[in-house]
């Protein structure tokens, strides 16, 4: 089957916006190519995580690629795309591709990757010889977000390594591939409830929980934010979405936590961090910790009251 590849070159803060536009107008798949990430992997000595087949995207900006079936609905989708991108500072180009080319294109960028002290994210098709004490997350993100290489995900993994051990109940909001839900379970959380608004992500997350042998402790459901999860039950809520969503989620996240429970929030672009902090404090949460990587910030906040069954910081 022939598909149209639409490649949009965008500044970092618009990457998720463009990916959402692709999803909303019915893209058959979205691939994000981030040159900063690739350069960083190489310069930090993680060159073995980058395939020799890699071609570095030009110009230093991130490219978001969406794929559309060349059928009678294509002109309408293109018109809708053009309308939505018209006021954004982005450039786009198109080319025809065969299905096999794009469905597996991202795999050449994806190799086992160490994150934090002991976590290794391993594509399921790669061989990796685990060292003593390592926690291996075996993953096939498919078309869902969350292969571990993006700074927003990596910072969540680092923070989960610190805060998830000992937690009884964890909520993962916007689970994508399920990477954070699986990590929380492998780090010792007894019950993880993961939600995503996107059915493709729900399927990928369920499959990844099964692949890692934690399906009995990780439940995945389609849902909007914390709408279907019980209040006052979570030792830890993790949400890697975007600043606007974290801001609107703040009161519900505070309500979802047990006294002393933690919220890990990521996906926050630097310029919006102050607004996010304000919203979290207004919801009654107290700051615990922050990480920054490039233009991204991840924060940990704590619900007032006594410490829960979590790591006890
Ligand atoms: C940046 S990805 C994070 C994926 C993964 N948790 C990670 O850290 O790599 C954000 C995810 O949130 C989901 N999402 C966006 N809005 C949502 C909403 N209102 N409710 C639930 N999930 C949502 C998206 O479908 C996407 O899978």
From TrEMBL:
Keyword match tRNA-binding: no
Keyword RNA-binding assigned to the entry: answer is: no
Binding-site positions, S-adenosyl-L-methionine: 153, 174, 196, 240
Q: Which Gene3D superfamilies match?
A: Vaccinia Virus protein VP39 (3.40.50.150)
GO MF annotations, alphabetized? protein-lysine N-methyltransferase activity
Q: Which UniProt keywords apply?
A: Cytoplasm, Methyltransferase, Ribonucleoprotein, Ribosomal protein, S-adenosyl-L-methionine, Transferase
Q: List its EC numbers.
A: 2.1.1.-
InterPro entries, alphabetically? Ribosomal_L11_MeTrfase_PrmA (IPR050078), Ribosomal_PrmA_MeTrfase (IPR004498), SAM-dependent_MTases_sf (IPR029063)
The record's annotation in Pfam families points to: PrmA
Please give the GO cellular component terms listed in this UniProt entry. Answer: cytoplasm; ribosome
Q: Where in the cell is it found?
A: Cytoplasm
Task: Write out the catalysed reaction.
Answer: L-lysyl-[protein] + 3 S-adenosyl-L-methionine = N(6),N(6),N(6)-trimethyl-L-lysyl-[protein] + 3 S-adenosyl-L-homocysteine + 3 H(+)
Q: What is its main location?
A: cytoplasm
Single GO BP term? methylation
UniProt function note = Methylates ribosomal protein L11.
Give the protein family.
Belongs to the methyltransferase superfamily. PrmA family.
Q: Which HAMAP family match?
A: Methyltr_PrmA
Please give the name of this protein. Answer: Ribosomal protein L11 methyltransferase
Q: Which organism is it from?
A: Desulfallas thermosapovorans DSM 6562
- Per UniProt, what is the name of the gene that codes for the protein in this document? prmA
């Amino acid at each position: 089957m022939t598909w149209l590849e639409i490649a949009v070159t965008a500044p970092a803060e618009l990457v998720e916006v463009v990916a959402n536009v692709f999803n909303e107008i019915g893209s058959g798949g979205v691939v994000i190519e981030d040159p900063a990430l690739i350069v960083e992997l190489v310069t930090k000595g993680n060159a073995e995580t980058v395939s020799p087949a890699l071609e570095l995207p030009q110009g230093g900006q991130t490219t978001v690629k969406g794929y559309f079936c060349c059928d009678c609905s294509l002109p309408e989708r293109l018109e809708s795309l053009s309308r939505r991108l018209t006021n954004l500072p982005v450039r786009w180009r198109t080319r025809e591709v065969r299905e096999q080319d794009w469905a597996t294109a991202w795999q050449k960028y994806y190799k086992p990757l160490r994150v934090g002290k002991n976590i290794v994210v391993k594509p399921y098709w790669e061989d990796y010889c685990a060292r003593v004490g390592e926690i291996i997350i075996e993953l096939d993100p498919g078309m869902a977000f969350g292969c571990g290489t993006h700074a927003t995900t990596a910072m969540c993994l680092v923070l989960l390594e610190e805060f998830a051990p000992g937690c009884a109940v964890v909520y993962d909001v916007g689970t994508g591939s399920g990477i954070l839900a699986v990590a929380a379970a492998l780090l010792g959380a007894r019950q993880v409830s993961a939600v995503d608004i996107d059915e493709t992500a729900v399927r990928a997350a369920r499959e990844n929980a099964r692949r890692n042998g934690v399906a009995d402790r990780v439940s995945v459901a389609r849902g909007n934010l914390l709408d279907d999860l019980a209040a006052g039950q979570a030792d830890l809520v993790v949400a890697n979405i975007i600043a606007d969503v974290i801001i609107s989620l703040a009161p519900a996240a505070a309500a979802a936590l047990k006294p002393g429970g933690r919220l890990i929030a990521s996906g926050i672009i630097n310029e919006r961090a102050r607004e996010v902090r304000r919203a979290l404090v207004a919801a009654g949460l107290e700051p615990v910790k922050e990480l920054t990587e490039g233009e991204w910030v991840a924060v940990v906040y704590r619900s007032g009251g006594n410490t829960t069954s979590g790591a006890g910081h």
